[in-house]
Amino acid sequence: MLVVGDVITDVVARHRGPLAPGTDTAAAIRTVPGGAGANVACWAACWGDTEVRLLGRVGEDSATWHTRELIARGVRPSLVVDPRAPTGTVVCLVDEGAAAERTFLTDGGASLRLEPGDWSDALLDGVARLHLSGYLLFAEPSRAFVAVAMKAARARGVPVSLDPASAGFLAKLGRDRFLALVEGVDVLLPSRDEACLLAGTSETADAAARLSRRFPLVVTKQGAEGALLARSGRVCARMPAVTTTPRDSTGAGDAFTGAFLATLMAGSGPRHAAAEGCRAGALAVRQVGGRPPSPV
Q1: Comparing C-alpha atoms, which of 213, 41, 214 is closest to residue 129?
Q2: Measuring CA to CA, how many Å separate 293 from each of 21, 45, 47, 280?
Q3: Rg from Cα positions in the chain
Q4: DSSP 3-state assignment of 146?
Q5: DSSP string spanning 156-221?
Q6: Which of 101-105, 192-196, 256-260, 283-287 has the lowest mean pLDDT?
Q7: Where does the chain show beta strands of DSSP type E?
Q8: CB 249 within 8 A of CB 94
Q9: What is the rounded distance in angstroms from the CA atom of residue 239 to the CA atom of residue 147?
């Protein structure tokens, strides 16, 4: 599997209760490797026997560190080093309340500067699936890159999956534009908010069903409520979440996606793959950061 997406430095600040504007709020702060694309690749590599490659763009400031961290999780990285932009950084504000909900402050940095010139059709040699991070659609250079990569995948008959990545950025891009950009994707893996935004409805099951008229398989991630699978205009399965006590929800959706795709590629059906995704998501929220523990 080839994953293309963002490689990011995450600064995770875990605080309890509301932030105190204009003064100090006590927090436990850690700097960890992240990025939706990179996280998915790491979970996929750790979850199954599939060889996972990752293409992304980073700055000179942390290219060596990110390469080392990806290799340590079993991923074969191909990182383009940007001579001008630094590696993207996300500040993750995590409220240590019951849901460990997170809010992101995002600077995409070099990750959004992936461009068509970074693509080579040889990247698809031996690849059975291309997975794209939706963050690539939120900047012009990387949008052009997505078009080139998807065209190459279609020419070779390589299926393409995509995670929309961010309801906030998606709203700014516009749902009609997003849907036009991702035409031809065979598996769409939105969150509940992303699915509802794209389908134009507030009801998650209805959103999944509507989207499955455009995409062969829609897998909607619902956090503590598990996941919905939809095909051909109807919800065909509801997978329960694995009960756990969350510490940090950063990367939980990425964990689901990585485990889901790895299980699917190992020959299992979507229902079993979704169950494995829920198991990975539960494991992810029990730790700080979006990468899998070692070993899983």
Answers
A1: 41
A2: 34, 12, 11, 11
A3: 18
A4: helix
A5: HT--EEEE---HHHHHHH-HHHHHHHTTT-SEE--BHHHHHHHHT-S-HHHHHHHHTTTSSEEEEE
A6: 101-105
A7: 2-4, 8-15, 28-34, 52-59, 75-82, 88-95, 102-107, 130-133, 160-163, 187-188, 217-221, 227-231, 234-239
A8: yes
A9: 33
Tokens of 111: 């990750």
| Three-state secondary structure call for residue 105 | strand
Query: What is the token pair recorded at 3?
Result: 């994953």
Instruction: For residue 203, count other CB atoms closer than 10 A to its CB.
Output: 12
Q: How far apart are CA 57 and CA 112, in angstroms?
A: 8
Spatial strand order in the sheet of 187-188: 75-82, 52-59, 2-4, 130-133, 160-163, 187-188, 217-221, 227-231, 234-239
pLDDT digits (tens, 9 = 90+) for 214-272: 999 999 999 889 999 999 999 999 999 998 888 877 889 999 999 999 999 999 999 99
Higher pLDDT pick, 98 / 128: 128
Q: CA dihedral in degrees (121, 190, 92, 108; nearest 10)? A: 30
Distance CA 119, CA 148 (A): 8
CB 106 within 8 A of CB 3: no
**Span 279-292, average pLDDT:** 90
- Residue 75 pairs in a beta bridge with 52
Cα 214 to the center of its chain, rounded Å: 20
Query: Residue 287's pLDDT band (boundaries 50, 70, 90)?
Result: confident
